[in-house]
Design brief:
Radius of gyration of chain A: 21 Å
CATH superfamily of chain A: Electron Transport, Fmn-binding Protein, Chain A
CATH architecture of chain A: Roll
EC number (chains A, B): 1.-.-.-
Structural class of chain A: alpha+beta
Helix content of chain A: 10-25%
Number of helices of chain A: 6
InterPro entries (chains A, B): Pyridox_Oxase-rel, Split_barrel_FMN-bd
Enzyme class (chains A, B): oxidoreductase
CATH class of chain A: Mainly Beta
Protein name (chains A, B): Pyridoxamine 5'-phosphate oxidase family protein
CATH topology of chain A: Pnp Oxidase, Chain A
Pfam families (chains A, B): Pyridox_ox_2 (PF12900)
Largest sheet of chain A: 10 strands, antiparallel
Strand content of chain A: 25-35%
Oligomer: homodimer
Distance between the termini of chain A: 29 Å
Largest interface: A-B, 95 and 95 residues
Shape of chain A: globular
Number of domains of chain A: 1
Chain lengths: 219, 219
Amino acid sequence: MDPAVTPLSSTDRTRLRRLRDQGRTDRAALVAVLRAGFVCHLGVVVDGTPMVVPTVYGFDSSFLYFHGSVASRSLAGGRTACVTVTHVDGLVLARSVFEHGVNYRSAMVYGLPRVLSGAAKLEGLRVLTEHAAPGQWDYARRPSRKELAATAIFALPLDEASVKVAEGPPTDGDGPDASLGLWAGVVPLGVVRRPPVPDPALPPGLPVPAHITALAEEA
Amino acid sequence: MDPAVTPLSSTDRTRLRRLRDQGRTDRAALVAVLRAGFVCHLGVVVDGTPMVVPTVYGFDSSFLYFHGSVASRSLAGGRTACVTVTHVDGLVLARSVFEHGVNYRSAMVYGLPRVLSGAAKLEGLRVLTEHAAPGQWDYARRPSRKELAATAIFALPLDEASVKVAEGPPTDGDGPDASLGLWAGVVPLGVVRRPPVPDPALPPGLPVPAHITALAEEA
């Protein structure tokens, strides 16, 4: 099944309700949003109240993998999670306060995360590591049995998801407010990566490996 | 009460459980994290499952204000929300996969959001607008009665919060892995703002106001 053409599911909780936010219904849009970041916000319910924690993720064609960290306890019982990945692309300055907004790309994935073990856990950690830091799985020392046991990796199916994208200029350019003579437009925002900073504990003269230079130059 | 010295509360859900993530317990740390962004992730519980949506926020010494949007329905009954603000500052590349991590600053605020009305709603919207786009409240056309009625603004008390900061180089520089001879360090990440892009619908020659040039130059 080609992940680029699989439509996303539309359930009551992933159906879109607002106007300017444009919903995307193809899997390619989901993959594009997931590819552009490596920190998600994981939402779980703990004792009836919501908890939202940032955590590192990776993904393949079927699952989103994330580090369990503080949320592990809450997910152990097989409870639904919501993982949201958001990229803030711009501040939309309109002629009226009401039409102000944010340009962004966001993906929400709902599902039952499954805690991984054995070979699946190692593979999940590999996918996550290679997504966040391409090349490091082969370069750095891989986890020992003990380290792996101290790590919680979850797999969340990429079956129930929604993607929203808001882009472009403010929408009040052809309304009555256009005659106010006010400036309107967008202040673009973006994430930049800067040159690698060596650990002060490194011996002098150790060159930066090519794959690290490359990942520091990613958009 | 000086917000810079008020300790943050420590409840069971805001107490910190992990080691490398350094908890901060002063209100100045909370204010610093909130000041550095304008998009939060709002977590609510809908029909027993978590929902995490990005939304715009602002804050003053007592409350965090956010746009209700899709979450409004779920909060109407006076339910607890969790608002998380995260800044990703760097990718930490250690000698071992296990010690890899992310440098970040994150704040979590728990509480019962109150939907605002009347003068408090207008003030909440002003604080939110001025936080995200300083100067626009006085420059753009303010909301009409009808527009204000179509906007949902919530106030979340800044009483129960936790702040976590992870920074600096990887921590395996003085362990046995240091002898592997591998490069280790940090790839710094940051958000940049780019020069304002005028709405194509603007009449030619309209200069960019100074406050917009200034907000586009913010770090």
